Amino acid sequence: QRIIPTQIWGRQPILLRRFLAMFRAFERRTSPLDPVLRAFITVRVSQINHCEFCIDFNAARVLRMGSHEDKLDTLHDFMDSHSFSASEKAALAYAEAVTYSDREVTDDLYKDLSEHFDDDSIVELTALIAYQNMSSKFNSALDIQSQGFCKVPAGNKSKEKS
Predict the structure, then answer these.
(1) Percent of the chain with pLDDT over 90
(2) Three-class secondary structure of residue 109 per DSSP
(3) Which of 20, 115, 135, 149 is most buried, with most CB under 10 Å away?
């Protein structure tokens, strides 16, 4: 199966190399962030940015890491879901505040986040959110469609909370 975004990024090889190097940096085993949380963050940012490819690709990553269908089904409404832990909710709320242009990271939100994550983890989380915003906005702008990596649950079709 061909991954179309890499073909498009590949039109500028230096950009593709840097893009993939950054992806590998986030996926390293020594990351302070849990791999499942990282994958959920990328799906949620992709939902907000209406990137069907990124939702599909990252939801498949989530599913490869275990039975998380219930979480994927309620990701767009994670705060009201009993499936997510307090630390996951704090990270996802932070991802939304960073991603939505009409929101900001409040002192209360940062305080909640810092109760679950140390400074190094917050820096990495922020970088991951920024990276996924770049990736999903790039793919969305160029209308890169889902590639069928997984059957994306109905609740994940780019729904966003208003």
Answers:
(1) 80
(2) helix
(3) 135
Return the higher-pLDDT residue of 113 and 70.
113
DSSP string of 51-103, one letter each residue: -HHHHHHHHHHHHHTS--HHHHHHGGGGGG-SSS-HHHHHHHHHHHHHHSTT-
Instruction: Taking each helix axis as running N to C, give the angle between helix 86-99 and helix 119-141, from 0 to 180 degrees, rounded to the nearest 10.
Output: 50
∠ CA 131-134-135, rounded to 5°: 85
- What is the per-residue pLDDT across 90-139, written as a single tens digit (0 to 9) for each? 999 999 999 999 999 999 999 999 999 999 999 999 999 999 999 999 99
Q: Which of 98, 104, 94 is nearest to 37 (CA)?
A: 94
Does the predicted TM-score (pTM) go above 0.85? yes
Q: Which residues of 37-72 are buried (b: 16+ CB within 10 A; e: fewer)?
A: bbbbbbbbbbbbbbbbbbbbbbbbbbbeeeebeebb
DSSP assigned state of 1: -
